[in-house]
UniProtKB/TrEMBL annotation:
Residues 40-275 form the NAD-dependent epimerase/dehydratase domain. The lineage of its organism: Eukaryota, Metazoa, Ecdysozoa, Arthropoda, Crustacea. It holds the Pfam family Epimerase. Belongs to the NAD(P)-dependent epimerase/dehydratase family. InterPro entries: Epimerase_deHydtase (IPR001509), NAD(P)-bd_dom_sf (IPR036291), NAD(P)_epim/dehydratase (IPR051225). One of its GO terms (molecular function) is L-threonine 3-dehydrogenase activity. It catalyses: L-threonine + NAD(+) = (2S)-2-amino-3-oxobutanoate + NADH + H(+). Pathway: Amino-acid degradation; L-threonine degradation via oxydo-reductase pathway; glycine from L-threonine: step 1/2. Catalyzes the NAD(+)-dependent oxidation of L-threonine to 2-amino-3-ketobutyrate, mediating L-threonine catabolism. Coiled coil: none annotated. This is L-threonine 3-dehydrogenase, mitochondrial. Gene3D superfamilies: NAD(P)-binding Rossmann-like Domain (3.40.50.720). Signal peptide: none annotated.
Length: 350
């Protein structure tokens, strides 16, 4: 009996020593990694923001220091551009193995189901948007990663002031997408205050890009209009013509993220910021597109996404980001439209 107790005590001491060594190695790994050359993992990398962000970060920090991941089969161009691996955010062990194997310092978590898609499959949205978030948050805490989780105008609801919507105000979203984003904001801030996690979050407006096809989200009409205008000269909008929403060209969105992530922790007065560039209605972007496609014909047939849009901010107040870390957008509506038309015209010119 005495021998058994001695063996148990020996195992406990040995286990404690191993855990202490692991903690020392984690601390040494983090301290030895210079911020100017972080190793970065992007989840959901094949979505709207991931590919463009990986390109920018690879130019800045090195091709092999930025690892894209997703559950989708990548194109040849994606594979040739730099490291790409399969990653299911619901598989904690898989994510943990990647963080350790690739010695990850920053984790940029894009994996999520968007607003309209999430409403069609709420159980799946809960798993991806909430359970997946828990996995990456716990990994970031365990390995002392700098973690970025995007939020959205969808994190606000009809009770929030809509014009303008300030950085700190009541948040009562009416979609599972919005609920999951508020959950992410609060959980990240809790982990920051409780465990010292370097959590960072930007609330993005609708993001407009020519690189990916519209995915059915509430603000995606502002992308679909370019494809339809250049292809058929006819566009049917699922929102009312006077529905005002905040928007942003993708170059501004990616630049805001890169600038935000590069800031030293002591430069941040808070962990979650609004960022935006412009606000417009469908009829306003139609007029701007008609500068390039004068014969564009537009009809309006509001669907379920109208109710979602009516609960979101009309104008986003990002004055705190501008004041505290000098955020400033470069593109207005006409500048964005000019770039989008020129980028997509060759695709449809025949």
């Amino acid at each position: 009996m005495a021998l058994q107790r001695l063996q148990i005590q020996h195992c406990r001491v040995f286990s404690s020593l191993i855990n202490n060594q692991l903690n020392v190695r984690r601390n040494q790994s983090v301290l030895a990694t210079p911020d100017e050359n972080p190793r970065i993992l992007i989840t959901g990398g094949l979505g709207q923001l991931g590919t463009g962000l990986a390109k920018i970060l690879r130019e800045k920090y090195g091709k092999d220091n930025v690892i894209m991941s997703d559950i989708l089969k990548p194109s040849k161009e994606v594979v040739e551009a730099g490291p790409y691996i399969f990653a299911d955010i619901l598989d904690f062990k898989c994510l943990q193995e990647m963080v350790v194997t690739y010695r990850i310092d920053w984790l940029i978590h894009f994996s999520a189901l968007l607003s309209a898609v999430g409403e069609q499959n709420v159980p799946l949205a809960i798993r991806v948007n909430i359970e997946g978030l828990h996995n990456v948050m716990e990994l970031a805490k365990q390995y002392r990663l700098r973690i970025f989780v995007p939020s959205t105008i969808g994190a606000f609801g009809p009770e929030s002031p809509r014009n303008p919507t300030p950085n700190l105000t009541i948040q009562r979203p009416k979609t599972i997408y919005g609920v999951s984003k508020v959950h992410g904001e609060l959980l990240g801030e809790y982990y920051h205050h409780k465990f010292g996690l370097d959590f960072r979050c930007l609330r993005f407006p609708g993001v407009i890009s020519s690189d990916t096809n519209p995915g059915g989200g509430t603000t995606d009409y502002a992308v679909q209009i370019f494809h339809d205008a250049l292809k058929t000269r006819q566009f049917q909008c699922y929102l009312k013509p006077d529905t005002r929403l905040p928007m942003m060209y993708i170059t501004d969105a990616l630049r805001s993220l890169c600038e935000f992530m590069a800031l030293p922790p002591e430069a941040l007065k808070q962990r979650t910021y609004n960022v935006t560039a412009m606000s417009f209605t469908p009829e306003e972007i139609v007029r701007s597109v008609q500068r390039h496609v004068p014969d564009l014909k537009v009809t309006y047939a509001p669907d379920s996404r109208q109710q979602i849009a009516d609960s979101w901010p009309q104008v986003f107040d990002d004055s705190e980001a501008r004041a505290e870390w000098n955020w400033k957008p470069q593109y207005d509506i006409d500048g964005m439209v000019d770039i989008m038309v020129n980028a997509l015209r060759p695709k449809y010119q025949n």
